[in-house]
Design brief:
alpha+beta; ph1033 like fold; 173 residues; 17% helix; globular; 6-stranded mixed β-sheet; two-stranded antiparallel ribbon
Length: 173
């Protein structure tokens, strides 16, 4: 005799090529959570972008929360500082650490800015893009939600996918 079909949902299958795995194990239960790659947009001026990339550091007034090592950063030059035909996002890098700046450290990397920023984001793997881009070229009208950003913002998950696909297509990842 055939077994009756059980009710219930099918488990959703996801293909997450990069990301973070969280494992919470107890005596009789193990919970595994997969988190896709998280991406951040760091804005910087034309005057500071060279040192942001050279030293693989960015500075902020407030301490960013919920950041993990290895998360991708899009380094964006402020629109007002772009030369004619230049694209905003010219570099990518990954987050290494978030910490309070040491005395004199801000001025060392960005002369004349001591006291303006309090926290340093250390990065690694800085890469100049062969195909720089503007957000609007990749995510369309969604780029408007990133326009008012002064220093940084987490990229929304639906925009992350579009940007990651674009980077893969153009051999940047």
């Amino acid at each position: 005799m055939a077994r009756p079909k059980r009710g219930g949902k099918k488990k959703e299958k996801k293909n997450i090529p990069n990301g973070v795995v969280h494992i919470n194990a107890t005596f009789n239960n193990t919970i595994i959570t997969l988190e896709g790659i998280r991406m951040y947009l760091f804005k910087t001026s034309g005057a500071t972008i060279e040192n942001v990339v050279k030293y693989e550091k960015h500075a902020f007034k407030y301490k960013p929360r919920e950041w993990n090592e290895g998360e991708l950063v899009l380094v964006s030059k402020n629109r007002k500082d772009l030369k004619n035909g230049e694209k905003q996002i010219q570099y990518i890098m990954k987050i290494k650490d978030v910490r309070e700046a040491n005395p004199g450290e801000i001025d060392k990397y960005w002369p004349g800015c001591e006291g303006k920023w309090k926290y340093i984001i250390e990065c690694y793997g800085s890469k100049k893009l062969k195909n720089p881009f503007n957000l609007e070229d990749v995510i369309g009208n969604n780029f408007k939600s990133y326009s008012p950003i002064v220093t940084f913002k987490k990229v929304e998950h639906y925009d992350e996918e579009e940007i990651l696909n674009w980077l893969r297509k153009h051999y940047e990842l």
